[in-house]
Amino acid sequence: MNVMKEVPCSSYSKEAMDFRVFEATPGISVIVLPNPPEYTHVAVSNDFIRISGLKREAVIGRGHFTFFPQSPLDPHFTGEQNLRASFAHIIAHKEPHRIPLQRYDVPNGDGTFSERYWQIHNAPILDEQGELMYIVHSAVDVSDQVKSEQRSQHTIQFLFDTSPIGIVAYEAMRDQTGAITDFRLRHYNRRANELSGISIQERETCTFRQIMHLLGTSHLFATFVDVVEQDLTIEKEQYVEQTSRWLAITGAKFLDGFQVTLTDITELKTSQQSLQKEILFSKGILNASLNGIYVLKAIRHTDGTVADFIFLQGNQKFTELTGHRIEDIIGKSLLTLFPHVSDSGFFQLLCQIIEGEEAHRQTMYFAKSFKRWYDYIAVRLGEDSVVVTFQEITTLKEFAMQIEHQKNLLDNILKHSPSGITVYAAIRNESRQVIDFQCIIANQAAEVFTQIPNEDRLAKTVLTITPEIKDSPIFRMAVATLETGEAFQTQYYHAPIQKWLELSVAKMDNEHLINVFTDITGRKEVQLRLEASNKELRRSNDELKQFAYVASHDLQEPLRKIRMFSNMISANLEPDHSLRSYLDKIDNSTVRMTGLIKSLLDYSRLSGTSFSTRFERVDLNVILQNVLADYEVTISQKHATVYSEALPTLEAIPIQMNQLFFNLIGNALKFVRKDVSPVITVKVQNVSDERKASFDQLQKDRSYVAISVQDNGIGFNQEYASKIFTIFQRLNDRSLFDGYGIGLALCKKVVDTHNGIIYAEGKPKEGATFTCILPYQQR
Length: 779
Description:
The protein is of the alpha+beta class. It is built from 28 helices and 29 strands. It starts with 19 loop residues before the first helix and ends with a strand. Residues 1-12, 273-289 and 732-737 have low confidence and may be disordered.
């Protein structure tokens, strides 16, 4: 047991000093002469002799620093310097001095050193004239607590930094009235910057208001003020243009500020899944405490049993811890001053020590008196006396509870994480080459995803379970990550469970890797189906191109020969020969067949352009003027009039827009009533939200324009409105109106390519109206 003590500074002389009580007092303590630089030992405690392994006669009379040289493990060695400074302070001021925490490595006797941390307390012993006689040097070994805190902080920080969830916290900046004017950064992890598109420099130099301005979300600043002032929690989904990601954002009050977690839900957004993961962390600081020391003497009944104890002596720390001055307690009853010790069992412990039991240590919580935790050790001194050394360990106890809380937190992360999490330790050969890995941590999700029982995973090495992985890229990448520190992410198909897994591997330290993997089977299957569909579509397009070649070459070649030979026969016939009328019909039929093939070829080519042609800004006024120029002769011959409102500019494929207007204007000029001059009107109107809602094909977040071409021609029955866009569909006698029944089908194909809709309205002998609704932008 390591303890520390303080010897009172009065009522002593060198002739009266008896160090036997000091030597019996538990704890690592020595008494040195104030004779710098040696600081010669005059007395050492039994615990010092036991722990150091030295003989008392080898220590007494030698300088203190002779036994504690500098350790090669500590390149920033300050132990001797700080301890000498503490001794010098006592010599100069004749008052106690403490070093709350000091690293001072201890030699092991074989030339090696052990890394150790101490709480050090030095106190003067003065003679009756107030002159300094000795210095009492006491130390408490707190190495386990310090190293435990370091490991805990390292683990928490590592999980925080490698978390797949972005975490950022801000604290409020307030004006003189207490109103929040801005927020300053408290902490963040790397993932928060990756998800939000904020650089490290921007994150660390900008206030929260400036960050909001960079993200274009300044309007949300007041919301986060409400989170802090009204203790609200917000949850929202936000698209971040800087990273092209959808994020689930959760904000909650944290101290006098807020903490935000950012989760990438881009994939989940498309598949209607949700995933939230919060990682909570805490950090504690272990503050060392000094010891209180007091001596009790037993008061017995006539039958020899212990009735009470009285105080014989105590130190200043006793006063600090209990609130009772030393001069007020000497000769006073223990049960009178501290009646609660009887109920706590501490009185019975002292009685057992007095009756001959070994030194006893016990931790107690005195709620009624002090509301603190104390660590006690009681040692028998003589026949009826006992020395009690105690230290307040409230901070240590609270820290231990925090450590337990952190452990539970980490356990919950592993237990409830939807991702599989494993930690592997490297197995090396004599040449320090990595030859295998051993799993040391695995959560339940890891077992579910891989179908490898965690019992086997933790008991066997990786290559024992899956020997085939030795020559795989994954094993080589894992070794490279351990050597270079560069994390990697990959996807692979796990055949035993027939699932696709996404694997993320990162280095924890020189001997450990952390592996986080997630089931992406649904997303991967969609991707594979899409790739298969694209392959099939490319095959279909190749067949369409082959068909186009056949249509443009193989089908037209016989028609050209029929027409050529028909013309040759006609040239050799008399003008009034009876066969000439038949040859004219043959010639007309071949001309119509050639036109039909050309129109069909245009339609098939249009089907393939959407995959290779890029959209661009197109002024439809220019398109319309070009089409009217093409129809200039027809318009003049039919005395037609064309009216048009100003057309918009939108994202489109220019040649397809030309085909669309060419066929719509052509239809209006073709299907005219006898003796009625054609009047064609082109109108434009933005599509309202109410109108968009009536068409399932239109997207609510896009802007559309409606372009209608109205004529006063022959019209049609409305019941045929949906059929007229079918290829080869005709509503009129071919002898009255020429054509192939492809034009309107081509119009629909163009509109479909542009993610729009087209529909027709008509009445017989009154005219028809064709309306195209197109988006302003394609993306």
